[in-house]
Amino acid sequence: MSEVYAVRRGLLRDRCAAVGSAAALVSRPANVRYLAGGAPPGAVLLLGPDEDVLLCPRPPTGDPADGRTDEQLRVDLLSVTGGDPVVAAADLATSCGAESLAVEEHDLTVARHRAMSAVAPKLRLADLGVTVEQLRIVKDEEEIGCLRIAAEITDQALGELLESILVGRTERHLALELERRLVDHGADGPAFATSVATGPNSGRGRHRPSDRRVEEGDFLSVCLGANYRGYRCEIGRTFVIGTAPADWQIELYDLVFAAQRAGREALVPGAAYRDVDRAARHLLDSAGHGEGLPPRTGHGVGLEIVEDPQLAPAAMGKLDACVPVTVEPGVHLPGRGGVRIDDTLVVRPEADGGPELLTITTKELLAL
């Protein structure tokens, strides 16, 4: 993998050179991990004119959840306890002869930015912007392999829960059990806070589990995902508890299912982000649910659970192959509940079979 990380750093160095910066400082943890293989807590990555250095405020613990740092990368520990690695990086860049340093202004606080200017007053600080985030959009096959395993773990955890007795258990208890099952099956942890929503809470995106107990006739919506080697996936499903679904539940479920299928089918290389959103949103809007819809139909996933691209009405850009995204339409009816269906897929050309579905738990409306 050392060669992979070196190539990634080389691409970033080329982009910095194109705008006149011989050095760059990467501080956003997911970006550090993408370029260095590992991101110990608080570490930053300096791409210098001659050498790349990972600056750590304390010795790395070796925790697998932090990743495995590229063995070819120089690692410096701060000599001052409590020192700020971004300040140390500015000082090091100056000593290496750099006249300018591109930084991730969207990640740095004003105080840290000022501290860098104070220690290296002659160093010109430029904005690196979201350059690394843009490099991360298209995944290589090893990254997709990690996402595929994360999805398999997630499907396993959800499948086991569906075989258990659910009536009478609280949303909070079910969410904790799902997260435990993720770890039991090999996840580093949950990709995000697991959401379990029942009855009138169902269908809400990112609902925070409460002490409400599952009752017969409820819609039960779950949204969860595994974190495997830093890569995160997402799945969302809705079921009916203990009895045959009511007519309104079947009607609402079929509508959301059709919208989700339309969004999935729109995932082709070259498709505009907004067109994927429109494919799903149009069906729900036409059925009278437009006003309460989420602001986006889906988003990219990877080292963070929400990455670019954003599949939203005003999003600019077009899909490339090998981009993993979610498609997650949902409708919530206040006081009654709702439906959310969410999959993680990888954009593939039609010649390769079209979108690759990573999360494969059934989307049939089951009565549990």
TrEMBL record:
Keywords attached to this entry: Aminopeptidase, Hydrolase, Protease
Domain of life (superkingdom): Bacteria
CDD domains named in the record: APP-like (cd01092)
EC number: 3.4.11.9
A GO molecular-function annotation: aminopeptidase activity
Disordered, as annotated region: 192-211
Pfam families xref list: Creatinase_N, Peptidase_M24
Name the record gives this protein: Aminopeptidase P family protein
